[in-house]
């Protein structure tokens, strides 16, 4: 069980890093909009694979 | 494939396409109908930018597009002036600038996608990010390559409207508060996870055996992890408890602080001496749960506060000041009393003042709730924030800034809001009795054990404090409220105050404000009475042709009915009276009966007499009257069903309105509302509500206009329709974002279920405390059992509360 005397301090260091990453995320504004990104990921920015025919410009009159 | 026979929906905004309109646009290979030039232009702009996918992504119909008139484009250009930009633009190195924008017209996530893609593609725009939750955007651009006005114009081209705004002090305070709360949550959460893990090891060690050195090591690590939680994360509880104590009150935070503080001190002492129990797991868990609850509450509060800032956009950013040299555009902030200002049709009135020249009708609906435009002539008062509808006015500024009516309404609202926490104070008083009783019992137990068995006095007292720790009790209400709030938000009912659900469940009266709550808030043609030889279609077409240039709501209602196809010559408008013009060589007038009668050369004997009461406008030519148009505000589709549901729930429904008696009576009769009052000023409404409250009623007020804000704040619980003025949201306890009236009934049902769950939770917590307290006081409960008991009782409470997350209709 002596290995715990090494492993637990290591886990504390990792936790410290986790806290630091969290605080960095807060500072860089990643928690400002909690709704948008969930939707944004569903919006495809890629062009469709099968090209559609070019859009006709309205009807003119 | 044009539409001529049946009503079609506009592909862009979903409004009915007027018969005869021909504004189709080819989208994805199919020709889609459009209702107007505005929507057609917007759809074309979206397609031309290669963003046609917007129509596949969106989940809601877009708002109807308004085309910018040249004056509005000129207004946008004013935002390029450096003296105006200094109010809202951050200038970085060189010509890089950054501004915050309020975006109007965002209805779903696809709107965000469309705006970001479109604006980012503009050359010179460095960054553009839309916050979906707040409908704000931040834009960075290179001023040498693009002007701010061009960016705003590009946003208008795809059917949205953007106004720059000053993020201001309030916004920064909110951001700081939120950042701080998140940091506390992060520290408490991560520490909790670690400490719980060590606690499991320690509990296991108690049974399986563990070397003393390892046991002490784990305790020291726990102490190390819990210290930042106490010193940093739990600080709000300690400061709030200290504030309560220094004001000689007992709030919920006092026993919370006492439990956290005492448990920590005792645990730390146990760690240092190597004897006794530690409760670090309970301390961190307790802190984390409480912080999480408060964070959720804060988010809702902030959203309400941000809406208030949007009131600023009621005032235009610039005004046309008339000087001897001519007309000059100045920022509204530079106006001073005595200035002469030109207000063009379609523009907002920049400050309070009087009319010097001209007369026109003004849309005051945002300030007074009056749905019909008001005519103002020379010498009449103009209120800042109202919109000029018809013809140019020259006004003399009398009040600016803080002295204006708009500012006064905002201040009234502020005051009403600070007077509000009466309900909260009551809850605090009840809590303080409980807390006082708890402290007295703990002290009594400590004293008794000190007399009989001093060695165990501290551990027993601590057991009592931990076991009776108002954890379940303090979680009972917030957990249920948060779960219910979440369920309602998914329905489109936003709760902005913690007490709203509790109070709504007890509501005995629901009071509606007619304009915009029971009706759609838009005039439409209700009836045509034919008085002459022409038929219905001819009258409509002539009327629409005459009115086509006007921005008056009546004109809009007419042109929604029929497309203006006839040519009009020599058109002239007389503000407050009507419009005259030549159609196919015949002179017509539309407007008030007197105005139209003046056109008739001689009172023709054959001319049909007017009906006794004229509620709308009449159309006539030189021979006599042709038609009488009546307009009304259409009722919301589900209003009657909602009223029936409310009545079935045993709630008294009333209607208080600022509108004309006839209109209010008609609405009340159609909906089956027994009690109603017309022509109410905000003061009348306030007095009526206070009289009801004095007789013991719990009043829920549903409103929408700015004038309602003080009334909304005076009712025990208030709801605003999402489409109403943003300010009303700010003072309302709940907002019906969906604008679906049936959700009001759902909200009341949910709130009643919430109250039932809260009662169950409180009952459970009470029973648990009544059983555990004597056992702990007798010394039969070891502190670790107390901790497990406390956690279990909290878990039961939370799980019970989570049942509320089901939708109310399931």
Protein model, in words:
The complex is a heterodimer of chains A (61) and B (810). Chain A is mainly α. Chain A has 2 helices and no strands. The longest helix of chain A is centred in the first third of the chain and has 24 residues, at 4-27. Mean pLDDT of chain A is 75; it is low at 55-61. By secondary structure, chain B is of the alpha+beta class. Chain B is 49% helix and 19% strand. Chain B contains 28 helices and 31 strands. A 7-stranded mixed beta sheet of chain B has the order 19-31-30-29-20-27-28, with helices on both faces. In chain B, strands 11-10-12-18-13-16 form a 6-stranded antiparallel beta sheet, with no helix packed on it. In chain B, helix 7 packs antiparallel against helix 11 (280-309) and helix 15 (454-467) packs antiparallel against helix 27 (742-777). Classes of the chains: A mainly alpha (61), B alpha+beta (810).
């Amino acid at each position: 069980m002596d290995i715990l005397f090494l492993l637990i301090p290591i886990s504390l260091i990792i936790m410290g890093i986790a806290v630091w990453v969290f605080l960095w995320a807060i500072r860089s504004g990643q928690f400002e909009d909690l709704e948008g990104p969930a939707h944004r990921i569903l919006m495809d920015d890629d062009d469709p694979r099968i090209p559609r025919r070019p859009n006709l410009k309205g009807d003119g009159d | 494939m044009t539409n001529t026979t049946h009503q079609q929906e506009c592909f862009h905004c979903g409004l009915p396409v007027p018969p005869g309109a021909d504004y189709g646009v080819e989208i994805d290979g199919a020709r889609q109908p459009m209702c107007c030039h505005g929507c057609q232009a917007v759809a074309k702009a979206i397609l031309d930018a290669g963003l046609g996918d917007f129509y596949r992504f969106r989940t809601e119909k877009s708002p109807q597009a308004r085309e910018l008139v040249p004056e509005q484009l000129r207004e946008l250009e004013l935002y390029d002036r450096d003296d105006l930009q200094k109010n809202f633009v951050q200038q970085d190195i060189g010509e890089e600038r950054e501004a915050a924008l309020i975006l109007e017209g965002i209805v779903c996530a696809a709107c965000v996608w469309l705006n970001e893609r479109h604006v980012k593609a503009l050359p010179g725009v460095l960054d553009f990010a839309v916050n979906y939750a707040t409908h704000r955007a931040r834009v960075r651009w290179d001023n040498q390559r693009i002007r701010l006005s061009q960016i705003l114009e590009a946003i208008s081209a795809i059917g949205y409207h953007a106004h720059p705004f000053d993020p201001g002090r309030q916004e920064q305070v909110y951001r700081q508060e939120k950042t701080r709360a998140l940091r506390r949550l992060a520290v408490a959460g991560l520490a909790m996870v670690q400490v719980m893990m060590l606690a499991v090891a320690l509990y296991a060690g108690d049974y399986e055996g563990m070397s003393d050195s390892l046991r002490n090591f784990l305790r020291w690590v726990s102490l190390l992890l819990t210290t930042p939680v106490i010193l940093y994360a739990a600080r709000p509880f300690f400061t709030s408890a200290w504030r309560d104590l220094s004001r000689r009150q007992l709030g919920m935070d006092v026993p919370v602080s006492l439990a956290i503080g005492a448990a920590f001190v005792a645990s730390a002492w146990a760690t240092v001496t190597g004897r006794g129990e530690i409760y670090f797991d309970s301390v961190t868990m307790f802190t984390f749960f409480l912080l999480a609850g408060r964070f959720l509450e804060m988010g809702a509060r902030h959203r309400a506060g941000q809406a208030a800032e949007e009131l600023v956009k009621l005032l235009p950013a610039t005004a046309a000041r008339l000087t001897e040299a001519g007309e000059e555009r100045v920022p509204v902030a530079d106006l001073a009393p005595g200035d002469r200002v030109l207000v063009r049709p379609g523009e907002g009135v920049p400050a309070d003042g009087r009319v010097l020249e001209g007369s026109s009708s003004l849309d005051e609906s945002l300030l007074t709730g009056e749905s019909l435009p008001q005519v103002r002539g020379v010498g009449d008062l103009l209120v800042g924030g109202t919109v000029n509808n018809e013809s140019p006015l020259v006004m003399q500024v009398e009040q600016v800034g803080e002295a204006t009516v708009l500012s006064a309404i905002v201040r009234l609202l502020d005051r009403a809001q600070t007077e509000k926490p009466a309900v909260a104070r009551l809850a605090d008083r009840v809590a303080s009795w409980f807390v006082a009783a708890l402290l007295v019992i703990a002290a009594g137990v400590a004293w008794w054990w000190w007399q009989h068995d001093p060695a165990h006095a501290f551990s027993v007292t601590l057991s009592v404090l931990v076991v009776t720790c108002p954890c379940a009790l303090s979680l009972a209400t917030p957990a249920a409220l948060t779960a219910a709030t979440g369920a309602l938000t998914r329905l489109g009912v936003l709760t902005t105050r913690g007490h709203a659900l509790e109070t709504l469940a007890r509501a005995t009266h629901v009071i509606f404000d007619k304009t915009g709550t029971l009706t759609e808030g838009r005039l439409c043609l209700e009836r045509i009475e034919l008085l002459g030889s022409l038929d219905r279609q001819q009258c409509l077409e002539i009327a629409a042709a005459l009115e086509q240039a006007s921005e008056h709501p009546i004109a809009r209602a007419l042109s929604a009915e029929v497309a203006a196809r006839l040519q009009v010559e020599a058109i002239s408008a007389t503000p407050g009276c009507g419009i005259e013009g030549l159609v196919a060589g015949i002179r017509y007038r539309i407007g008030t009966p007197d105005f139209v009668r003046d056109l008739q050369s001689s009172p023709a004997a054959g001319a049909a007499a007017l009906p006794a009461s004229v509620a709308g406008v009449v159309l006539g030519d030189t021979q006599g009257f042709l038609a009488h148009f009546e307009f009304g505000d259409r009722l919301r589709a589900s209003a009657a069903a909602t009223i029936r549901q409310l009545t079935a729930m045993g709630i008294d429904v009333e209607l208080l309105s600022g509108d004309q008696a006839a209109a209010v009576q008609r609405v009340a009769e159609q909906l089956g509302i027994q009690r109603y009052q017309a022509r109410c000023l905000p003061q009348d409404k306030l007095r009526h509500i206070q009289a009801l409250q004095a007789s013991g009623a719990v009043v829920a007020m549903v409103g929408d206009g700015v004038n309602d804000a003080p009334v909304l704040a005076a009712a025990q619980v208030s709801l605003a329709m999402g489409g109403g003025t943003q300010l009303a949201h700010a003072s309302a306890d709940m907002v019906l974002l969906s604008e679906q009236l049936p959700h009001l009934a759902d909200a009341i049902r949910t709130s009643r279920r919430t109250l039932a769950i809260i009662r169950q939770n409180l009952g459970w917590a009470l029973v648990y405390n009544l059983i555990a307290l004597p056992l702990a006081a007798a010394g039969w409960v070891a502190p670790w059992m107390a901790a497990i008991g406390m956690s279990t009782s909290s878990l039961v409470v939370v799980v019970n509360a989570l049942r509320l997350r089901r939708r109310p209709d399931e």
